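Standup notes
- HV: blocked on the assembly model, inputs below
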Amino acid sequence: MNEILEILSENAKATTSEIAALLGRQQADVAKEIRDLENAGVIRKYITLINWEKLDQSFVFAVLELKVALQRKTGYDAVAERIANFSEVESVRLISGDHDLSVTVRGKSMKDIAYFVAEKIAPLEGVQSTCTHFILRSYKEHGVILTEKQKPQRLVITP
Amino acid sequence: MKQSLKNVTIPAWNAQRHLNQTVKGMPPSGIRRFFDLVSEMEGAISLGVGEPDFVTPWHVREACIYSLESGITHYTSNKGMPELREVISESVSRDLGLTYDPAEQILITTGVSEAVDLAFRATLNPGDEVIVPEPCYVAYTPDILLAGGVARTVPTRLEDEFRLQPEEVAAAVTDKTRALLLSYPNNPTGAIMTRSDLEELADVVVENDLLVISDEVYAKLTYSGSHASFAQLEGMQDRTIILNGLSKSHAMTGWRIGYALGDPALVGAMTKVHQYTMLSAPTMAQVAAVEAMQKGDEEMLHMKHEYNLRRRMFVSGLNRIGLDCFEPRGAFYAFPSVKAWGLSSEEFAERLLREQKVAVVPGSVFGPSGEGLLRCSYATSREELIEALDRIEKFLASL
């Protein structure tokens, strides 16, 4: 794996000078490579992982499983792209198994999401059925365990 | 008639009278004082920890939990679980190209610490001398002393990148010298010995018929080329006892699993001491060690990669702020010099701790040749290392 991407995928805030020091490279080279990766669309966005459950004003998330009629020429793409355009939708994935698309949706309340599904997703041409799973608690996101207790302590000095 | 104790003056209990003289005369580890200082300080960043900051990988912990659920809680054979000896034999054959018979040439110990102790106790007679390169890990000299031997320390120096020089070894040999201790990659210096460095030592070893006791616990953490063992040199396998373990490579310090490899007569003698003192290494930890050695390579390489990133950043950072540091190629320590700043390593470390709350270990703790140097462990998070460099820079500016 590209070493710069490895570092940025762990910490989007890593600066070019930090990355250069970690890799033993010139800062200017690192900056240029990151620009190239951005321009090539490899790096799409620098995001922050937030544990919403720590906040009073939280969001509700749901995973929708959709059965979709395969369309001539466009396959699943046309339906998937239509769904992806809704701002409520966080992710759209084609999956194997009983369903075809897995969609993550974010809303302010369960009602919000229920209406969104009923009004925007279910009626879409090609969508044959929907199954909505509300997320009750998140234990791990993007490789980070959210429920982790305090880090185990080491002795402060050891030989 | 039974004599009554009533009228007899009983002398006050004096525990000192009951102490072994060797133990009594042994100075406590110089690290202890720093430990106490750091412990009472809030918000200190410690670069003084000689163990990985990673927790043991989950699959290893999970394998141990399963073994406990299955009731695998009995003694193992004195030498250790056959599966563990097998997997160690395979791993050593892959890494070093050397064959060790799991039945007679491998002993599982309770940490490498026990293996070091056993090696000395099984081979030294009263007054026998062992050559120990210095600065070195704090346990070797006391262990030699407890085994009835005498430690002859040989200094290593910054200008040689802390590699042991053959002429220094030759000069330290007397007619009582029996063994040479090697400890590379090295704690505290981070130095390594390449194959050609080791080859230069072989003549002195053979001429003086020395046994080589080689503590290679940091072998997997070698950042340039691959680790070289003295046992790999032609004809040297039989006169070398390799000591290794999983503490550093697999982030398993608390599990206490180490092993010794060598000539059946030597390993057999060590096994004899082990069976009368330790009996066997903890069973659950041995089960975990099998899992780690069979399936832990990916996580091990991931940890090594992370140490390597930190090493580059931290060592270049130390040089940038004005602490001269040679490039350590193994373990997870940087060993910068403070000689240009007019303070002893102890003064420097104590003031740095009190004034900027960064804990490092003065090099002098590891022997007189560590004076003027500091051991800084980079087995701590990148954020803490960056913050520590900032604070050290501030401290230097205040001098």
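- HV (later): unblocked. The two ends of chain A are 35 Å apart (CA to CA). The helical segments of chain A are 3-10, 16-23, 27-39, 77-84, 110-121.
- Next: hand off to the docking folks.
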